[in-house]
Amino acid sequence: MERKTIYLCLAHMSEDGLEQKYVKEAFDTNWVVPLGPNVNAFEEELRKFVTGNTESEILSQSRWPEAWESAWHLKESLKNKQVVALSAGTAAVHLALIASGVKAGDEVCVQSFTFCASSHPITYIGATPVFIDSERDTWNMDPELLEKAILDRKAKTGKYPKAIIPVALYGMPYNCDRIMEIANKYDIPVIEDAAEGFGSKYKGQVLGTFGKFGVLSFNGNKMITTSGGGALICDDAESKNNVMWYATQARDAYPYYQHTAIGYNYRMSNVCAGIGRGQMSVAQAHINHHKHVHALYKELFKDVQGIELKEAPSADYDSNYWLCTITIDPKLKIKGQENAYKEVIKTAVGGAAGVIHAVDDPTTDCQPNENVEALRVFMLEKKVEARPVWKPMHKQPVYANAPAYVNGVSESIFKVGMCLPAGPYVTDDDVRYIVDCIKEAIEK
Ligand SMILES: Cc1ncc(COP(=O)(O)O)c(C=O)c1O
């Protein structure tokens, strides 16, 4: 039997077809609009998911007697949290910036090692991203560099940055304690980009609930999907109301259309929210599966010299392992390495939804090592999708003029990193096959 391609992470519906039931309900009741019962119910289920069970989990993680006090504070702050369903995670980042008061000419500190949707919305507003490099432990925003950047921006521009955006790269939590401590010290709001970290936890608390705002994504490749969609976790009902106002063209309360602010059409469709409601029934199973796949990779890579699987630095960091990532020793020889980067890519590249933006040169001045590219090509021939890790934003030509506070970590990981399939469709047999293919690719 011919093997099917194993993709990085594909949408996966519930066995009992709940998604279709809720979508059908939307059609049957003619709620085919960007509001309605599915939207409300999805928001409520998300709210429960991100704020539930935390007190006991915190208690089980922390030391007596401090535990009681911190658990009580946490419970109080989580009680008020609300969720707004939106058309995309990117829209959630954009609205969080607006609701944090970011304006044209302001600066925002954002993790450099991320997908472009963490930083692009800063530019939509006419503000400037200030890129912060990563720490090696988590691959996420380095708190020491963050503080250095905050102080240096203040010295250079006379103003503090207006927001801080840490990112849960491939699901891995950032150092929430340190980032929140620094943000509170300078009174700067934190927008957590947990688009890839749905259900990941730091010290028992779900990501997206630490900061003023938390971004979620339900794109087709994410932990759960609404085909395309996102959500913003807000501090309280008032903040939710404000975000919803901006998400629905910012209309004032008159019988006719009156506007005192620029708004957006960013609300989630009731049809998509139906898919989301169905997906909530499998959310925890998906997370468990991603973790299971990661554990299996760990076992199978144990004896493979030159390949290292990324793991959480300690039990405080409970990653959903949205994608499993490896780093490849530069000394490792991969079959076909001599041909890496010899030809310009003529087809659509992964994730670009069929769009081709042709280039003249097969290389750039900052790219993954040749053995990483050779492994990607080798795996593609074996019908396994493997991709380089995100190219840091401070190395992107489009951000050539943006300030950046760097330590070399994200650039060095970009050169050796690779993402491997981890979604609900990936079976144990697939994982064994993937690791066997990687072993086969290594020149003896
Ligand atoms: C880190 C990160 N932030 C934001 C987004 C944006 O989400 P969306 O694709 O739903 O707009 C994504 C994913 O696509 C992401 O990976």
List keywords for this structure.
Aspartate Aminotransferase, domain 1; 14 helices; 444 residues; Aspartate Aminotransferase, domain 2; binds pyridoxal-5'-phosphate; single chain; 4-stranded parallel β-sheet; 4-stranded mixed β-sheet; alpha/beta
Number of helices: 14
The gross shape turns out to be globular
Stretches where pLDDT is under 50 for at least 5 consecutive residues are none
Helical residue percent band: 25-40%
Mean pLDDT: 94
Strand content: 5-15%
Q: Give the SSE string.
A: HHHHEHEHEHEHEEEEEHHHEEEHEEHEH
Cα-atom Rg, whole angstroms? Answer: 22 Å
By secondary-structure content and strand pairing, the structural class works out as alpha/beta
CATH architecture of the largest domain: 3-Layer(aba) Sandwich
Summed up, the domain count is 2
How far apart are the first and last residues' alpha carbons, in Å? Answer: 29 Å
Number of E-state strands: 15
- Just give the CATH class of the largest domain: Alpha Beta
Q: List all distinct small molecules, including ions and cofactors, that are bound in this structure.
A: pyridoxal-5'-phosphate
Largest sheet: 4 strands, mixed
At the fourth level of CATH, the homologous superfamily of the largest domain is Type I PLP-dependent aspartate aminotransferase-like (Major domain)
**The CATH topology of the largest domain, please?**
Aspartate Aminotransferase, domain 2
* Strand order within the widest beta sheet: 1-9-8-5
